[in-house]
């Protein structure tokens, strides 16, 4: 009878729920999660699975963290909600903004809070437009982002997202969003004799010149492209990007929704390359997924222009600066700093990547094993020598994902790229088990 519990829930689910990426076929045999413990999820049948993607990259503290639960309960009892509109604030929002100013890039000291990453993208688009209008350059409205970039699925955020599968059902996209190639070290082809990173960065300059520098307001990029395939850029890529943005007077926004708060082995992703953005956006790990909270941070220069304006920034969310979310955010920052999450992610990520390369690096259908901090990916290919991809109809990635689920690990794929980004609290034994599961699943599906 226990084996029927999950299926019974799914039948009820199908009667009334619409899911993100809704697909009835994909939901058949879906999991119903009823409990979480540390780095593990437990379904309605009582079966345990390693949470190989920290939920959706966000649950870095793992399941059942009492400090976060207690912070939420205490704030709910004291002040469960208050407006964050001008003329109204609360102590937790003030504290969280102060804490963020102390740990983000030194030029970023002012913050606006949202409910998640997509809202943060839209907030930065509107902040950039507002800023350029105040600067007397109202035509600088275009946003350049990258292929394989993921920035959310509101209509504007989807238009910035460079994963084309998100577009067809909702065309036409919002005008003014332009995409350039990803630096994608495994697949980007630079001209002969040129640095791959510099050539990929120069795609931005070419796009700015094509569009017209007076029309481009912002470049948006993840330090490591997450949902697009855990794409770690070349070391010379972002320094050149910064030069180009400075040369053409374009704001550089860093999407730290996945890479922020220690995931990559640094507190924020661009720290790896010594580059400072003009704007950031964040979400996910700020509350370890325990509450929907995100936000943007802006440079002191943008903040000064904003404060001097006679025209208000007419952008508002009911749940901006939500006191419960901010209380959990403060508690989460306490944990991150006390327990050294960036250092933990660096060490555990190195262990995971080394073991993945040992276990799968020589497999004839493994083209690339890559990662930074505790976010890794394995890219499967038909031909290792030519890097030829499998036909989509072969469904290699989904089949490997299904095989890992059957062995007790739950994660996601993009095509034939398998992701691993478990909670930062995941034990070494669990990390090693993840490698064993993926290696066994690979041999089962691909020989």
Describe this structure in words.
With 447 residues, this protein is of the alpha/beta class. The chain folds into 2 domains: 31-52 and 340-446, Alpha-Beta Complex (Aspartate Aminotransferase, domain 1); 67-339, Type I PLP-dependent aspartate aminotransferase-like (Major domain) (Aspartate Aminotransferase, domain 2). It is 39% helix and 15% strand. It has helices spanning 4-16, 24-27, 54-57, 66-78, 91-103, 117-134, 155-160, 196-211, 237-247, 300-307, 323-339, 341-360, 396-406, 428-446, and strands spanning 33-37, 40-43, 48-51, 108-114, 142-146, 177-180, 216-221, 251-255, 279-282, 294-299, 366-371, 376-380, 409-410, 413-414, 417-420. A 7-stranded mixed β-sheet has the order 4-10-9-8-7-5-6, sandwiched between helices. Strands 1-2-3-13 form a 4-stranded mixed β-sheet. Strands 11-12-15-14 form a 4-stranded antiparallel β-sheet, covered by helices on one side. The chain is globular.
